[in-house]
Amino acid sequence: MKTRQIGKSGITASAIALGTWSMGGDAQWGAQDDEASLKAIHSAVEHGINTIDTAPAYGFGYSERLVGRAIREIPREKLVIQTKCGFWWRDDEGAVIIERDGKVCRRNLSRRAIMLDVEESLKNLGTDYIDVYITHHQAREPFLVPVSETMDALMELKRQGKIRAVGISNCSEKEIKDYLSCGEIDVLQERFSMLDQDKADKYLPVCQENGITFEAFSPLEQGLLSGKIGMDYVVPEGNLRNNIKWYRPELRRRVIEMLDGWKDLCRKYECNTANLVVAWTSAKAENLIILGGGRKEAHVLDYIKGGNIELEKADAERMNRDIALAGGSTE
């Protein structure tokens, strides 16, 4: 397994991290098979993935608790555990994001909320420190907490030894600069796939300039780029895939045709479609970590195999042309 440095923190992470969003088992994802998820986490670690990403937002702590169960027998120093703050449902303080599962969910990056969040996450995970602590959703009106207040709280947690590194997610370019003006940032976590390259193209230069590691979530567009979803697939009501434009029939057809056109590449590299897409994604930048989401062992193994494939330049260039034709370019 290839490795990456987490910013300037001195933490060494696997180039593929296990994302546990779908393990939350809330209304966004439907019924959860805990045993399958636990097997996926154990398989990830056995195959060289040392980095596990979770968040309180994933099932209102359910994913964190599941990760905590999975890592009980694994030496803590061998793992890089990431979780988040800023997604708040405990009271009515904060700017509303969404209402789901009977709870009103808000953006809250106040010092008070962060200090409560971190203690709850430590308890859920069964650990006394978090390797990378990430602001999940940035502050918005009518509860616009200053970045300086948020960073002061995070720096205090670093001094206390409760977190080792700071990350940010779902940010604007201005917000990234604001964070950098108040302290050290080691991770920027943003959406990136071959169909959605805008943020990577915009922010990777900023990350490289400031020694920040870019973590890419949704690299397979919630399964569409795995090659396993056809035109007959019906997105369940309430499922997150309804928010992804590429699942619309007219766009989905373009993607499926693009993937079908790469069958010869799959034969050449002795891989499946998901492996090929992960290989392309991993090659985007040297300071990029893929957040491979999934709740089955097979999903984990797809990411691992893809991360170990080295695409020839001509094949990568061909894929770039096909992506542009499908409408996935950044133009």
| CA distance, first residue to last residue | 33 Å
Taking all residues together, what is the mean pLDDT?
Answer: 96
Query: Considering DSSP H and I runs of 4 or more, what fraction of the residues is helical?
Result: 25-40%
How much strand content do the residues show? Answer: 15-25%
Query: What is the strand tally?
Result: 13
Sheet of most strands? 8 strands, parallel, barrel
Order of helices and strands: EEEHEHEEEEHEHEHEHEHHHEHH
For the largest sheet, list the strands in their spatial order. Answer: 3-4-5-9-10-11-12-13
How many DSSP H or I helices? 11
* Shape annotation: globular
Description of the molecule:
- The protein has helices at residues 34-46, 62-70, 111-125, 147-160, 173-182, 198-210, 249-260, 263-269, 273-282, 297-307, 313-326, and strands spanning 3-6, 11-14, 16-19, 51-53, 80-85, 87-88, 95-100, 103-107, 130-135, 163-169, 187-191, 213-217, 288-293.
- Helix 4 crosses helix 5 and helix 9 packs across helix 10 (297-307).
- It has eleven helices and 13 strands.
- The chain is globular.
- It has 331 residues and is α/β, with parallel strands linked by helices.
